[in-house]
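I am still getting used to backbone structure tokens and would like to learn alongside you. Would you supply a protein for us yourself, any chain you care to pick? Start from the sequence, derive the backbone structure tokens from it, and show both lines together. Go ahead whenever you are ready, and we will take it from there.
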Amino acid sequence: MKQKNVNRSPLFYVGDKYKLIDEIKTHFPAGIGRFIEPFVGGGSVFMNVDADEYLLNDLDREVIGIHKYLCARANNEQRFFDRIFALIDSYGLSCSFRRDDVPPELKNEFPKTYYAKYNKDSFARLKTDFNTLHRRNKLYLYVLLIYGFNRMLRFNSNKQYNLPVGNVDFNANTHQALKTYFTQVRNKQISWQNLDFHKFFDRYIPQADDFIYLDPPYLITFSEYNKYWDEAIEKDLLEILDRLDRENIRFAISNVTHYKGRVNEIFLQWAGRFSIHPIKSNYISYHDNSIKTFNEVLVTNY
């Protein structure tokens, strides 16, 4: 179901707060001078927060690269759409936003997966060309994201994109998300960073009207983007937040406290000194696409 008055990121990021931002925002403070996200991901949060300026960071350079690429085209969106549709057409990929490319017989034979069947060979050629010829081309990468499995970005040890085709194409939701993104970033003063959060906070200079929102990888879940997170890193982040609290910098952090019998005792013990707000949530597993209920919270120091 479409969220009311919520701007959705065109990166369709796994773990994105699109469905939760209305609830999360009710706990955000008023009067944000600078909005800061050390783990910006797809960007659905900053797109829905009013502030004078934005300092946005993520460790994933490909994600930041796409953000910067799209931001640079916000003032000429028609040229962007002309280019992306030309690229889609050059590979023979379906584009349901503009037309119905999939033959009826394929829809009848594969009623739930016909986009994947139709686009499989074209997507494979696009992926090969990106990995061998266009590795720096963010338009190619964005099209791979849109047509790839679960709209994710994943690379092998040789830094080659290695996801299979997904069962979706460039549709009306994609077009609307892009137009919304262009409108949002045109009206925002944004600085993009691509740093590990330790280095990000080493370089961060606090300002009195800052507000920091953090949505780090979750220690006790099994998402693809959590695989490099461990207890030591969790403690590092919480120590940084303790320092920010001593400096009277406002922050809010999302996390999961309970999941499939696991409990994040480190976070729970730390959070007890602050305000804990339960968040209604569900988790879609990367591994099997099933929905896993869990306990998500937002912790604030104000």
